[in-house]
Every structure is written in C-alpha cells, then in structure tokens.
C-alpha cells in the first residue's frame, strides 16, 4: 500500500475526553482520504486518554497510538510522532483543536500546483467552549520578516517530512515556541512556501491556552526570542532579537555597518507651518531631527530646493547639517518624482532615503533600522511608521485592492498594537509611502527611479510595483518612527487620470497579498470623530 500523503502529528497530554474525541472526529471527517493520524500520549495521568485513542485506532487503521512511559513534554512527544510518520508531509494538530472537513484537500491542491512546495500554512480562527467560531486570522502571503517578529503562520502548518527530519525536528529547550523554532529552520531551506487563504483550522480557546490569554505561557517568550536570535545568527543577519510590545511579538534591532554611506534626499521649497502651536521651518526641523536621532556617521543630506526657497532657510540648513549638506537648486515646475530623481543623481550614498520635508524623526536609530534591512539582497524597499501630530497612525504600509490604494490602520493610536500585531511587527507589505522610504542606490537606478509622468500622486505606488516586478521584497519597519505633519492638512489635489494611469500599468488585485481588506481597516471610533477633508488618498 502506498504511504499516505499526510501524517497528522498530535502530541496528547490529559485533554478533556470529549475535546479529544472532537479533535479525532474532525480528522475522520476529512474529504481527503490519504492521511494517517499519529497520536502520541505523553503519559497522561488519566488512563481514559490512551484508552479512547486505542478504540479509535481499532476502528480505523489510519489512526496510530504511541504511548510514552514518561512525560517528556511537547517537544519529545512531537518528535516521537515525527519519527513514526510515513507521509510525504507532516501536518501539526493540537489535541484539542479541529480541522475543517476540507482542510487536507485544500492543502493537497496547493501542493499539487507546485512540485517544490516544502511548507504550507492556512488561515485560522478560534472556537469557544460553546462551539462558536470567532477571531478569524486572515494571514498575509509568505512574509519572512513577519515570521521573525511573530509566529504568524501557526495553524494549520504542513511541512515536508524529509525537510523536517533534515533540520532535526523539534528542539529541546524551545517548549512553548517549538513550532516557531521549527518553522524558522524549515523555511530557511524551503524551496517554496505557500499560503492557503482559507480558514481551515479551529484553535480551541480554553482556560490556560494562549488562544484565550497571550500571556498564559510566559516561558514561551524566552524560547521565542532565542529561536529568532538563532535564526538571525544562522542567516548572518547582524541583529538582536528582543521582546516586543506584547507577549508573542518580537523586535529585531539590526545593526547598520558603519562603512555603509547613506544619502537622505529631501525635496522642499522651504515653507514654514504651525506645529503644536509654534511656527517652524519644516525642512530645517526635519534635518535637525533626522541627524539628532541617528548615531550613524556616514550620512549626507541632499536637499533639492525650489529657487524661491528663502536664503535664510538655506543658511539654517548649512548651520544644522554642516559639511553633510548637499544643496541642489530646482527651477522647474513642481514634480515630486523629478525632484527625487535629481536628488539621487547628486547623492553619493550606497543607500538612499526619500524623506518629505514635513516629517520629524522620533525613534533613536530610526535611520539605522530603516536602512539596515537592505543588506538582505532580496529586500528592495523599506518604509517607516508615520504618525499624525495627535499620535495617531498615518502610515503603516500600503495596501492595494479593489482598484484603490490605501493606508491601512489609519488613525489607530500610537500605543495600539493593531489586529494580530500588525502595527508593532515589521513585515512584508505591498507598498510604502515615499514620505519616508529607503532603497539601495543600484536598485533605484535598475528599476528606473520615480516615474516623472506622475508628478504629484501615486508615484510611490508605481515605484512599489516596480520593486515587486523586480522580484524584491518591500518591508514596513515598525521600529523606524516619525511624525508626518502636513499630510493631514494639505489639500488633496488628486486627478482621476493619475490613479487610472497606475491601474492601467499595473492593475489592482481584489485583495492585497499582505493586508487583506477586512484586516486593513482604519480606527473606526476615531474616524467617526473626524471631518471628511482629512480622508485623503495616498499622495
């Protein structure tokens, strides 16, 4: 008889009997037959647990009971299941959770479309004690940066058996984050990772579970940080992993090589504005803050200024930036794209940062965190987290869907983590705003820079699509934080032809790959309090 397609590995330790039965029944209800269910009883104190499993095994030969004679905890029990697996793929199922009937058939279909798939994950939700489901987690497509900050793939995870064994299976000492550690090691070598955007797994929310309380397993935090750190070390990423805004979220603080030169390109006409009741020259304060809040020495500031810019403003810039300043006069009609392109041509840095003149850096090391991910050769563009002056979110990555271009999570407050940690975890996104973004110099020229046919709006959207077309990743960097003052108050002058020009060139998917529309929502409580004129499109 041919081996099964899937080996479902389920470590078992003293679950309620009715819950265990529901778990097993959910596997028996699959509309895909080529599976085996390996239940490893980790010396449960309730003798009824192995008895019930044995009864199911007698009724269906695809079910196997392994009884441990000592309690080895979840890593040891899971490895016993991996060792016994005969399937091409291992599917991980907890002893109290449920698969939907079409779970395995949907995963099999995804695998059949590509012969090099090594890891598949699906969307999930939670199921309460009353059997009702809630809290659907609509996950992004493969996002390696997000996996470093959060075990987002979680349930259902299906991994090629040979690769699981090649990397050594589950590792002792990572209890509570053993799945995260395993998936990090598998995806480092995986040829292809596939996301099935359907809820195929119900995670049971019971007392003591992280489905109910993210702080239920504090030991998992230390194990998760160690798993991420070892992953970074294996990949040669010069960074330190640490705790994030809440349990289960991690921060990766990268170190930027001091030898890397960075050019910050700022277009301006030297205007001033009221900020928190005080009038300030925007570009001067932008430059002052960006230099004060970076420790990186090899930084030049390229200011592309319209000829009407007051000479006093240029003098102030010379005083603030000294010999780091490069002034580039611009005497043509306003064209944001052209001004940035001209600035980059005058820049000498290995990395270029595009920066609006109406921003203020907040986080110390904002530049290092923004630029350092570009050391990874497949990262083409990075963008920062921007706030309005009232501490609400203006930008946390773009989302492109339904023939529109959107700022997800707009008006969430600075202290909110967002749905499923979106605001506090660095992650892949479809696009970022050019109000603060960074690229390698060679990438900028390879993709042709900004399109000067889009002088005012959507030029950054077009740039992001070009990065994607080059096969490169775009990252939202949650640890690079700035204020963006004027975007809330300037008049939106968007012409329909601008949007249509981008749509004609690139099209727009029904759903964003990384931020599904039902997740990409503004803070509705805040929206109800705001006047309509504050709802500007991406510009």
UniProtKB/TrEMBL annotation:
One of its GO terms (molecular function) is transferase activity. InterPro entries: Glyco_trans_2-like, Nucleotide-diphossugar_trans. Coiled coil: none annotated. It comes from the Bacteria. Residues 7-122 form the Glycosyltransferase 2-like domain. Keywords: Transferase. Signal peptide: none annotated. The keyword Nuclease does not apply. Pfam families: Glyco_tranf_2_3, Glycos_transf_2. This is Glycosyltransferase.
